[in-house]
Structures are given as C-alpha cells and as structure tokens.
Write a structure and sequence with these properties.
This protein is an all-beta fold. It has no helices and 16 strands.
C-alpha cells in the first residue's frame, strides 16, 4: 500500500469560456483506475458598483471650497469582490474601511471621480461621478438693520431689529452687540430693552 501526493498547479485557461468538469484519473501498478472530478464554474459576470453621491448641506444644492464632503463606493459580486479603486481627477486616492473618501476642495472647478471594482475572476466594472465646486465670493448682507427710534428718553422702550442674509453658503454665525456687549435677538430678529440711563448706544452686527 503506497500513498503518493500529487500536486497540480491550476492556471486560467483563456480558451475555456464556459463551465467545465475537471476529471483526474490515477492508476495503480496493476492498472486499476481511481477517478475523481471537480466541477469548475467559469465566472464571466462583472461585479456591480455604485458611487454614493454626497448631499449638499446648502439650500441651493451646491458644493463650495473649504467645505468637506464624502464620496463612498459600494460593490457586489456573484462570488467575491477582490478590491475597489477610486481616483479623483485621475489620481488614485485611498478608501477607508467603509470604502469612503472625504475631500476638502481648495479650488473651484469640476472634481471627477472614477470608481473601479474587480472580482476574484478578474472581471471589472466602472462608475463615474463629477461635481462642480463653487467659490463663495459674495458677502452676507442685512435685509433689515433698524431701530424703532433714534432718540429716546429714560424709560422708553428701544427695539433693535436685524435680519441678516447670505445668498451663497448661508450664515455661519452672527454676533450682535450694544456698546461692545453681546446680545441675543429673539426669533423675529429683535432685541427689546428699556433705556435706564442717558448716553449713546452703538448697535453692531457682524456676520
């Protein structure tokens, strides 16, 4: 009784484009055969891939410089995904463990993403996505900036009204002060107080 190990290196067969059965036949010294077979399935199905597009945080739907956004890639295959690649403007970038990439655009213009997926059989598929990045060049302004009176006596109510607005990226912050002391406006954009002393009141808003 003799045991022998047989090693057979299997490489791809470019001329075989269908499923096939590989049969191995071994003979002993007496000519008795032993047969075993393996069913090999040819995978010619490309994996699927999608680029999950980011959503703008602005009401106008735009993306702006210095504002980070994330692109993620999802892929699926009938057998197994080997790896995924992502390029930004023809330069390969590194995906994290969730197949995501975050970019903070420094310059305006079109940012072109190309994602490519490979399965274990070497099949591949691609998806692309492009987004235009704008630069916010307009300063915020105030729709209203007024007082109910510009001369008051002690005991009079003074109402300061200020409604800021920005047409591009929206308002990041607004600081209101009276004589350099910060105040908070109500939901109607008003600040009301009673004059308790004489003097000058300087109202300021910085957006």
């Amino acid at each position: 009784h003799v045991n022998e190990d047989l090693t057979c290196e299997m490489k791809s067969f470019p001329y075989i484009r269908q499923n096939f059965t590989l049969e191995i036949v071994a003979y002993d010294w007496g000519g008795q055969p032993y047969r075993t077979s393996f069913y090999m399935k040819y995978d010619n199905e490309a994996p699927s891939i999608e680029i999950n597009k980011p959503e703008s945080t602005y009401s106008n739907g735009r993306f702006y410089t210095e504002d980070p956004f994330t692109v993620s890639v999802s892929a699926d295959d009938n057998y197994e995904i080997d790896h995924i690649e992502l390029t930004l403007n023809n330069e390969e970038v590194s995906l994290d463990e969730n197949n995501s990439f975050t970019v903070t655009p420094s310059e305006p213009g079109t940012y072109y993403f190309l994602a490519r997926v490979y399965d274990r059989a070497g099949n591949t598929n691609v998806k692309n996505y492009s987004v235009y990045i704008y630069k916010d060049t307009s300063a915020p302004y105030f729709n209203e900036f007024k007082l109910n009176t510009y001369a008051a006596s002690i005991g009079n109510e003074i109402i300061f009204t200020c409604i800021p607005f920005d047409a591009e990226t929206g308002l990041k912050s607004v600081v209101y002060t009276i004589n350099d002391k910060e105040i908070t406006l109500d939901e109607n954009g008003e600040y009301k107080f009673t004059a308790e002393e004489t003097g000058e009141f300087i109202f300021k808003a910085v957006a």
